[in-house]
Write a structure and sequence with these properties.
mainly alpha, two-stranded antiparallel sheet, globular
């Protein structure tokens, strides 16, 4: 069922992409059926970037190709939106609330909108973060330039919201966009001298609260958005929505811890390991600031090469990495247990596990890698 739903989503995404990138050719003056200058420019400046943004799949974790299954030879990515649909409306031939054609149509639109909003976020985040590579290939702004990448990301947001159609789903997605942009604003602000000085001066507890608030919005929203959009479409009861909200927040914190920790583990960070010292949003940095030399704390120079030297040479770095990795594992475990508590069937629980663990298993692997290194 996971592959069938994922294949359906890929079909819907292809149709959505075609609707954004296909326009009737308008012959230019005096031409013999050739494409007009306007359409040629539109293809390069809009349709091409949109196709690259939505269609890029290199490097993303996917279900392994399976001969004889739906789209068996294609890499497929399961969707939390469809998990919610199967959980609350049942599987073919199984028990559950009666699913209507309207339910499925709303869920299919929501799944496309969520995926496209995530693609838009990638395009915009890469510009703000100065990331030149995404999923192993050049970022959109590297290929098409910053102005067109900005335009593409903005267009995809409006197109996704329009595609969702159902008012409750659109409202949910608007809230997700607001949350994501709020978290990104706080993250970007940690590159400024003022915010860095405030973080350096703040006590540890306040720094951790700052990080959790930022991560819950910036990364937790990526998990919250598909589920909230789906339950909005399906009218799920409020009590279970609260359980799912909290679980997705914890998954987001676990995921951000993983992202922060990979900056220190070459097996996961690759060539980007030890490179992101231009801001103070990394949880590891925030954990270690109390022991920074007073002159560096007061001068505001604890950034870049000075921050890198301080953190990588810190005597508590390894213990901090292990502790945070263990925390990420526990956050993931508890959130998954909470969601299993609202699963209507064992089949639904397996569906959820497959959807999360295609990336979630990396959190466990990171912890195991750090433990192995500690034993060496």
């Amino acid at each position: 069922m996971v592959r069938s739903d994922a294949a359906l989503l890929e079909e819907d995404l292809a149709a959505f992409l075609a609707s954004l990138t296909t326009a009737p050719a308008r012959p230019g003056p005096g031409s013999s059926g050739s494409v007009s200058l306007y359409d040629a420019v539109l293809g390069r400046s809009l349709y091409g970037p949109v196709a690259d943004a939505v269609g890029s799949k290199v490097g993303q974790e996917a279900l392994a190709p399976t001969a004889g299954a739906p789209a068996g030879r294609a890499p497929l990515r399961p969707s939390m939106v469809f998990w919610a649909y199967r959980n609350y409306r049942g599987f073919p031939g199984g028990a559950g609330e009666e699913a209507t054609a309207a339910d499925l149509a709303a869920v299919r639109r929501a799944a496309v909108a969520v995926r496209v909003l995530l693609k838009a976020a990638v395009a915009l985040d890469d510009i703000q973060d100065g990331s030149g590579i995404r999923y192993g290939e050049p970022a959109l702004h590297v290929t098409h330039g910053i102005p067109l990448a900005l335009n593409t990301g903005s267009l995809l947001i409006t197109a996704a919201l329009e595609h969702a159609a159902e008012p409750a789903v659109v409202q949910s997605l608007l809230e997700s966009v607001r949350r994501g942009l709020t978290g990104q604003a706080v993250d970007v602000s940690t590159r400024t001298a003022l915010t860095r000085a405030e973080l350096v001066a703040a006590p540890l507890g306040e720094r951790i609260a700052f990080w959790e608030s930022m991560a819950a919005l910036k990364t937790g929203t990526l998990f919250w958005m598909p589920l909230d959009a789906a339950v909005a479409a399906l009218g799920v009861v409020e009590d279970e929505r609260r359980v799912l909200d909290e679980a997705m927040r914890d998954l987001g914190l676990a995921s951000q811890l993983f992202n922060d920790l990979t900056d220190f583990v070459p097996e996961f960070g690759g060539r980007n390991t030890h490179e992101d010292f231009g801001q103070l949003s990394n949880r590891v940095f925030l954990e270690l600031l109390d022991s920074a030399p007073a002159d560096l704390r007061a001068s505001g120079e604890l950034v870049g090469a000075r921050l890198k030297e301080f953190v990588l040479g810190h005597p508590d770095l390894r213990e901090t990495l292990l502790r945070l990795a263990a925390q990420a594992v526990e956050l993931k475990r508890s959130s998954m247990e909470a969601v299993r508590g609202v699963c209507r069937s064992e089949e639904s629980a397996r569906y959820f596990d497959v959807t999360i663990e295609r990336k979630g298993h990396l959190i466990d692997r990171l912890h195991a890698t750090l433990l192995k290194g500690d034993d060496a």
